[in-house]
Amino acid sequence: MDLSKSYDYFKPEQCKGSIYILGCGAVGSSLAEMLVRLGLTDIVLYDFDYVTGHNIANQMYVEADIGLAKVDALYSHLVSINPLAKDNIVRVYERYTDQPLSGYVFLCMDNIDTRREIAEANVANTYIKAVFDFRMRLEEAQHYAADWRNPQMVQNLINSMQFSHAEAQAETPVSACNLALSVVPTVRDIVARGVANFMNFIKTGTIRKFVMSNPFQFTLDAFQ
Known about the structure:
Shape: globular
Strand content: 15-25%
Oligomer: single chain
CATH architecture: 3-Layer(aba) Sandwich
Distance between the termini: 33 Å
Number of helices: 6
CATH class: Alpha Beta
Order of helices and strands: EHEHEEHEEHHHEE
Number of strands: 8
Helix content: 25-40%
Number of domains: 1
């Protein structure tokens, strides 16, 4: 893959560790696409689900992917972008439970209870370098991150998760068919900020612990 447009700014070999993407829906699929375009290929994809028609509107899938396992469909798209990823991307066809994690962990599943359990279970995991979390509403989205070598940052991330999946669902607008509403500008906006946060962490060792954006209101808040 020709990285001449970005290589002077971001060198993928500086990323020392695997990238775990837990959940390949709207956030996870968009995230994987951006990371592969940066030349990153040491990626583990976790998802148990299959592509359905309503996924096309806000995820990185196309009509031809309907019925395929999300990890297979996403893998094909990523390899079409960067053929060097073919032998490096690992696909896991199940819900993440308690498998070992290391390197850079991106929490992209839509259940806050599961994300909190993963963070709490890995508090003492010295193999993790950083954790990046994403939370979506319709127009507004939030991104949280923690340098896993910093106990206070780890605790701050866990403290931000002290609500239930049911409470989160109650705050999420739904369609007449009771599907959670989601539009692609909100997804791409917060994912881009999360990827930028990850890139800065790789390059400088600094990380933003919280980013909130609303592309429709043109608002942005971020905290170190």
